[in-house]
């Protein structure tokens, strides 16, 4: 079995294949030659903005830089092809309309699998379930609830395509989600689709365009004069997407503005709530603030903020959010040269959200740096490296 390269290695391979020297690529990426060299050799992780800059300079997608994380991609490829087929047949589902009880159970299972980051299990369910939900909505004509279910299912499908590094499929899924959301006459469904649309720009490293999508969606939703808990969750989630995009764009003012709006809205909820595949509340807002510190090159602030959260993990958050928190913490600890702490954070991510930890680009990059720097003989580190395909 061959090891699967991570982002830093792929940058080096693509650069050499194009006959580009480190000095020229570093200049186009607006980083130092020393920094680029450390990224390529695994002494520094390739962060999302670095990956975006490399992709632009090398004229490839960010997905090409991040690479294929699977050591045995055959099953994933077959399942993704099934999902592509279901998405392509968005007006021609081959499934029959199921009973309301069976459809409700399927929708609940899909949402749970997404929240628990069980992506392969969700991928097995989605093609048939999408067909069934779409058949139900088409048979029901203008039933807005049925179309809302289709829209939410496409939200689950987007999460899978995004996490498994399939940007073209994610783009197609978002367009289908928007198609379904428009039939709900529900501004919240359209805003949830916009949240994922902004996510496609985030994945591509086009942070300014993603911010434009978020700000437009916020304006449209506010103009709808929606109110209640749903409104708080939708608007808060849009602002959290804005926090990520603005911080990666290194726009401190926009980051702070979106964060302040999110905090104000989060105070209206007693616990974190999940609606339309959007998680929002005070705990999740704190995790986004922590991640923003890292993107703005303030890892010490992120570590300080994380310490009480590690001792008492936020209640009510599912593995998809907690797993990401520990990956972010590992990245922050690595930046502060706390190598053992970074390893411990990764171990928590693998325990809570194994499928996410195995394939998330930053999890793999942090692990690669730890593995190369000094800890090849550490059993737990070796085990994680083998699970991600970074070691054989």
Mean pLDDT: 93
What's the order of the H and E elements? Answer: HHHHHHHHHHHHHHEEHHHHHHH
By DSSP (H or I, 4+ residues per run), the number of helices equals: 21
Uncertain spans, ≥5 residues at pLDDT below 50? none
Strand order of the largest sheet: 1-2
What's the structural domain tally?
A: 4
| Helix-residue proportion | over 70%
- The count of strands amounts to 2
Description:
- The protein is mainly α and 392 residues long.
- The chain has four domains: 7-66, lambda repressor-like DNA-binding domains (434 Repressor (Amino-terminal Domain), Orthogonal Bundle); 72-181, no CATH class; 186-297, no CATH class; 304-392.
- The chain has 21 helices and two strands.
- Strands 1-2 form a two-stranded antiparallel ribbon.
- α7 (100-115) runs parallel beside α9 (144-163).
- The chain is globular and about 60 Å long.
- The N and C termini lie close together (7 Å).
What's a quick, concise take on this entry?
The protein has 392 residues and is mostly helical. 74% of the residues lie in helices and 2% in strands. It has four domains: 7-66, lambda repressor-like DNA-binding domains (434 Repressor (Amino-terminal Domain)); 72-181, no CATH class; 186-297, no CATH class; 304-392.
Helix and strand layout, with pairings?
Elements: H1 7-17, H2 22-29, H3 33-41, H4 48-58, H5 62-66, H6 74-88, H7 100-115, H8 119-139, H9 144-163, H10 167-182, H11 187-204, H12 207-223, H13 229-248, H14 252-266, E1 273-275, E2 278-280, H15 282-295, H16 299-311, H17 319-335, H18 339-352, H19 354-359, H20 361-373, H21 379-388
Antiparallel strand pairs: 1-2
Helix pairs in contact: 1-4, 2-3, 6-8, 7-8, 7-9, 8-9, 9-10, 9-11, 10-11, 11-12, 11-13, 12-13, 13-14, 13-15, 14-15, 15-16, 15-17, 16-17, 17-18, 17-20, 18-20, 20-21
